[in-house]
């Protein structure tokens, strides 16, 4: 099947397996926990209003230019934000490359965070530095750029709070491994990982919705395909993934390490609720995606968000606000890095 054939297959597949969850609209309202969020002291929406009033405008215009050229960078940004905040807090430690060993080469990140996105963040920060030197943190640059990008590709408006400061050190490989969930985790390990970060099942399900766009490297996808095809995957979908990823398939090139597949084949660069339909239809790629169906509370939320994009967006907004205040440095703590890759 060629690419067009594959897309047609998936469209037909989605249509034939449209979601029929057990909820009526009224039950949806009762079934969903009310999203709750407590703002952290020291963070405000207009943090730079007096110190760098142009900051937000500059970041918005840069991100808009970038997303117009390449909408898939929104996914690159969201993953960098997640991997920053889950390891030692949202302190931009993920962007440090010198003089310490970078988190970027730690096992869960190795060769899978987009270098293009890291360069983009450096460029945005340079533009802000040119106007207000030493004022706006790299941590806030990641958070604000991501929120703007996600909204530009269809996601909700997230009223991000600002005022984070940067760390001057990166976390060890061991710390990254301990904090970033592996795609092989089962539902109780996923819940435990999120709970360790102060996040609940609703946060787990809503933030996993980040897999509604972006890509995965074949070496990760292979975990679901070899030695035997995982029962997480629809058989025809797995066969197509194998054709793309497995040696001997159509892409048996020397450059296999760089091969990727879309996390969402239907709307690959759009932030919408199709991730949840994909999970229900067994066309979401990772075991950690399928595992959301293995506990009653997370399964009900997958069904709810598949039916109701507004409910997903409401929870995603709150979960992102919670995620982006994990372990933040404020006030006199931390520094403002001028170049995000070095501790000044
Ligand atoms: C729940 C546990 C999670 C696991 C096990 C997981 C695992 C992964 C893996 C293995 C990849 C593919 C990496 C690659 O091969 O390039 C990936 C991609 C991605 N993840 Fe997750 N993830 C999780 C949660 C999240 C969360 C909470 C977010 C954001 C809120 C997120 C956003 C993304 C995005 C946007 C991509 C695509 C990145 C790109 O296209 O550059 N993930 N994830």
UniProtKB/TrEMBL annotation:
Q: What keywords are annotated for this sequence in UniProt? A: Calcium, Disulfide bond, Glycoprotein, Heme, Hydrogen peroxide, Iron, Metal-binding, Oxidoreductase, Peroxidase, Secreted, Signal
- Keyword Heme recorded: yes
Q: Which residues form the active site?
A: 83
Which residues are marked as site: Transition state stabilizer?
79
Q: Which residues form the signal peptide?
A: 1-18
Q: Where in the cell is it found?
A: Secreted
Q: At which positions is Ca(2+) 1 bound?
A: 84, 87, 89, 91, 93, 103
**Where does this chain mainly localize?**
secreted
Q: Which reaction does it catalyse?
A: 2 a phenolic donor + H2O2 = 2 a phenolic radical donor + 2 H2O
Q: Give the UniProt family note.
A: Belongs to the peroxidase family. Classical plant (class III) peroxidase subfamily.
* Source organism per UniProt: Ceratopteris richardii (Triangle waterfern)
Residues annotated for substrate binding in this entry: 181
Q: What is its EC number?
A: 1.11.1.7
**Cofactor: how and how many bound:** Binds 1 heme b (iron(II)-protoporphyrin IX) group per subunit. Binds 2 calcium ions per subunit.
Source organism, top-level taxon: Eukaryota
Q: What is this protein called?
A: Peroxidase
CC cofactor: heme b; Ca(2+)
SS bond list = 52-132, 85-90, 138-340, 218-245
């Amino acid at each position: 099947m060629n690419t067009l054939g594959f897309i047609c297959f998936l469209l037909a597949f989605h249509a034939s397996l449209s979601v029929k969850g057990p909820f009526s609209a009224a039950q949806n309202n009762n079934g969903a926990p009310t999203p709750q969020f407590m703002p952290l002291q020291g963070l405000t929406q207009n943090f730079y209003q007096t110190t760098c009033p142009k900051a937000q405008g500059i970041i918005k215009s840069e991100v808009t230019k970038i997303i117009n050229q390449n909408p898939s960078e929104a996914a690159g940004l969201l993953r960098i934000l997640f991997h920053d905040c889950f390891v030692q807090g949202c302190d931009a430690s993920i962007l440090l490359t010198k003089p310490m060993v970078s988190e970027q080469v730690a096992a869960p990140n190795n060769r899978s965070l987009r270098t293009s996105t890291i360069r983009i963040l450096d460029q945005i920060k340079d533009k802000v530095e040119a106007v207000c030197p030493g004022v706006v943190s790299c941590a806030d640059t990641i958070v604000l750029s991501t929120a703007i990008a996600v909204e530009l590709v269809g996601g909700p408006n997230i009223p991000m709070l600002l005022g984070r400061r940067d760390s001057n050190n990166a976390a060890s490989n061991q710390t990254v491994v301990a904090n970033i969930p592996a795609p092989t985790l089962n539902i109780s390990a996923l819940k435990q990982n999120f709970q360790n970060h102060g996040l609940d099942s609703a946060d787990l399900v809503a933030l996993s919705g980040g897999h509604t766009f972006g890509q995965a490297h074949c070496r990760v996808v292979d975990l679901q395909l070899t030695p035997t095809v995982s029962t997480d995957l629809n058989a025809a979908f797995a066969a197509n993934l194998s054709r793309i990823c497995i040696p001997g398939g159509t892409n048996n090139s020397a450059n296999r390490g760089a091969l990727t597949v879309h996390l969402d084949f239907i709307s690959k660069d759009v932030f919408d609720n199709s991730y949840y339909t994909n999970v229900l239809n067994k066309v979401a790629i990772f075991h950690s995606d399928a595992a959301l169906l293995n506990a009653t509370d997370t399964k009900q939320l997958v069904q709810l968000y598949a039916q109701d994009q507004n409910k997903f967006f409401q929870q995603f907004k709150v979960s992102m606000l919670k995620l982006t205040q994990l372990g933040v440095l404020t006030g006199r703590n931390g520094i403002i890095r001028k170049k995000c890759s070095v501790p000044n």
